Amino acid sequence: MPTFKLDGREIPFEKGDSIIQAARRAGVDIPHYCWHPGLSVAANCRMCLVEMLPPPGRKPLLLDVLEWDAEKEDYVPAKKPKLVPACQQAAGEGMEVASDSSEHVARARAAVQELLLLNHPVDCPICDQAGECRLQDYWLEHQGTKKRMKDEIVHKPKGVVFGPTIVYDAERCIVCTRCVRFCEEVVKDPVLEKRERGNLSEITLAPGRELDHGYTLMTEYVCPVGALTARDFRFKARVWFLRSAQTVCTGCATGCNAFTDFDPRDQTVYRYRPRENMAVNRYWMCDDGMLDYRRIHENRVLEARVRGKKTSFEDALEKARGILAAAPAEQLGVVLSAQHSNEDNFAILRLCRDYLGTGHIYVSGRAQGLGDPVLKHADRNPNTAGVTALCTSTPPKTFSELAKDIHEGRITHVLSLGSYSSDAEKTDALTRLQGLVTLATHEGPLAKHATVVLPTSSWAECDGTFVNAKGMAQESEKAVAPRGHSEPAWRLAGHLARALGFPMAWTKLSQVRKAMAPEAGASVAMISGAEA
Amino acid sequence: MEPLDLDLDHGEIELAAEPMLINVGPSHPAMHGTVRIVMELSGETIERCDVQVGYLHRGFEKMCERGTWTQVFPYVDRCNYVSPMLNNVGFALACEKMLGIEVPERCQWYRMILGELARIADHLTCDGAMVMELGAFTPFLWMVKTREMIWDVLEEETGARLTHSFGRVGGMAAPPTPGFKEHTRAVVDHVRRVLDEVKRLLLGNRIFLDRLEGVGVISPEDAVSLGWTGPALRGAGVAYDVRKASPYLKYGEVEFDVPVGTASDCFDRFMVRMEEMEQSSRIIDQCLERMADEGPINVDDPRVVLPPKDEVYSTIEGTIRHFKIVMEGLKLPAGEVYSYTEGGNGELGFYLVSDGSGTPWRVRIRPPCFFVTGGLERIITGQMVADVVPCFGSLNMIGGECDR
What we know:
The complex is a heterodimer of chains A (532) and B (404).
Chain A: E1 3-6, E2 9-12, H1 19-25, E3 49-52, E4 62-69, E5 74-81, E6 83-85, E7 96-98, H2 103-117, H3 134-143, E8 160-161, E9 166-168, H4 178-185, E10 192-195, E11 202-205, H5 216-222, E12 228-230, E13 243-248, E14 257-263, E15 268-274, H6 287-290, E16 305-306, E17 309-310, H7 313-326, E18 332-337, H8 342-356, E19 360-364, H9 384-390, H10 399-407, E20 413-417, E21 435-440, H11 445-448, E22 452-455, E23 464-467, E24 472-476, H12 489-499, H13 509-523, E25 525-526
Parallel strand pairs in A: 1-7, 18-19, 18-20, 20-21, 21-22, 24-25
Antiparallel strand pairs in A: 1-2, 3-6, 3-7, 4-5, 8-9, 9-12, 10-11, 13-14, 14-15, 16-17, 16-22, 23-24
Chain B: E1 20-24, E2 36-42, E3 45-52, H1 60-63, H2 73-77, H3 84-99, H4 105-133, H5 137-158, E4 167-168, E5 171-172, H6 180-202, H7 206-212, H8 220-225, H9 230-235, H10 242-245, H11 266-290, H12 309-314, H13 316-328, E6 335-343, E7 346-354, E8 362-366, H14 368-373, H15 376-380, H16 388-395, H17 399-403
Helix pairs in contact in B: 3-4, 4-5, 4-11, 4-16, 5-6, 6-11, 11-16
């Protein structure tokens, strides 16, 4: 692989790489605002300027400039090398580039940073970006000086509602055009544009339009400063109180890699952020996925119920045991959940198929939605592929088939994981069941008609593996503690099995995974959630 | 006095042949702070003893690992709470060594004056308490009254009498008050007068001398091998003083002597402290002379020092600077450092490890008391029970610092 030298360090690069790209891959960060690895090069922020050293034996290209001399109190002629933006300059074999080691680069960065802060409002205390703002980071790293401008700053519109999800603050904006390029290049919906020039420039909407495509929250995500803020997250939490877990979005079968940001003090999830994975979601997530974190807190089943009345967990477990013990094996159906992880499904499957001896396996989940060509999959369940892979011998039947089997009297008892029905019109069939035990995370038809409901943890409350539509198994980390009285479904399956007198002695997730390995590993390549 | 059991004649009482085990502390008026000494007595002589420390352990070093570097200052205040200012300055110097910065000259003089005042307060407390425990109450009252006057100065400067939390990385929390020099001079004069009076009262007193002279002797070699520093080591005749051996701040530029003992007994340790107070007063005089009345106290480094409030409220640069230092903490470069100063009881060392973030990775304190207290067993074995009090007093164990 060819290399070039950055501050004396050899950096390998591929043909077509820019300096900043190759440096990023080698783990060297060159400060930048407007450049984003997933977007085209604009080179308008000038923060990534670097010095190209001349080839050996050649004179450097120097520009004549005027420099302030504090002693003479006048400008004096001086020379400085021409700096180039690292995001635009293609890397070349044997190039020598000075970034942190160049005094000219340091001065250029300080000057660029000072310019960007020239008209910036004093907003940090009320700005959601504070704590993860490039302006703050780079001020400390590259500027570190006081304000020199005595004039009033230029005032521009604040709190401009761009659409249902995004609010724009023109005063904070550094007009890096990342959001403009994102809409144009990734979503192919050029709804944002830049207007005016100089310190009057701002981002504006296309005439007659709102920022309302399916990826609006990504404009907030690519914004390096606090100009674009998400209406969903505005003023809800301060980012330095949040911790992140590496999770997988459960909004659809794409399985986008995400960070789940939660506040450890009140165990509340506040947002998702995309996590880079070039094999799955690259840098992005869709709006529906980004807001899917709400399901962790909304519409949850948090207490055990018997016939709609809240009971203790022990009573519910005893009731469930009675139903399952009395159910004839040939009339017992088990509903797996495409919403739950491999581990949860495997534990239920082991209980029903191997111990209770039923052969009637169904799968349910959220109903089909609309996909898009960018990321969104029509299957709104994260683990359909995983459940299918778990049922090695016979593929699971659908919810509609379950309804048909109930009507025809072949199924009288059901143990269900999850409460979603993938066919809303056929949920009436559930009323004909003699016994329905549901391990439910959310309220739904299967929880509503259940004889016994046991509260189940959501994906954010336990570790789990999800297999996306491409067949990639991805691990999702636990973020917060299980809500209410809920427990992970694999643990509930263990409780049920032991109550029924079966030797299912799992107490740790690793034990479930060990038991599952031969079945899941047969058809699914295990790929951890990190970069693939 | 009549024997309690009237049926028994004199001489018939059989004293137990085996040694008596007696336990003093951890909560006992003679055990400053909380320490426990288990003694095996034969008659009134200590045959063996076991000094047990750790009753005041609060996990100070671990606590430091969760805040910012600046938030460590209140903790070091509570290490040696008799001279907290010395700890403040010691910790600030350690952080500054890591950052490679030096505070402005005015601040260096200011730190020296406040530190020496704290040293005088420390020694007044130790010597005062020592004589009080031997029955001389008057010198104790005089000395503690003088300590109050020193605390008045510190309160005027810092706002707190005991736990000042006044040090900052890169400077001090506030510049000297306008009346600082005048106030300090008056107090130092008073210190000198009181020291003279105390000496006149005690040094001709046969009882006082007999309780101290030849009691609690340790050889200089033993003292060094135990890791003793400070007045206890100097009392044993070893002239090691960090201020002279490796001068920090401006100690290289002021004149002062390092008093040493000759007999390495309790009396020498007492006298070394008395003399050190004189020397501290000398240092303060010189510092007051040389400290400028105007000039910056804090370094001009935006990474380290908070901006003035009006800048925070009116400019984005000031806001960012304030935000970064308060919310993330000032960042020490990744690495480790050992920095040591002369504390009230000897070499006060801070070993810091930083991972480059705003939170300490490890803060280890070398408390002078811990090593000095380690020698207590040696100097009281073979002594009488009553000698434990001056021996222990002369070592000046400070629980907060020793147990951390």
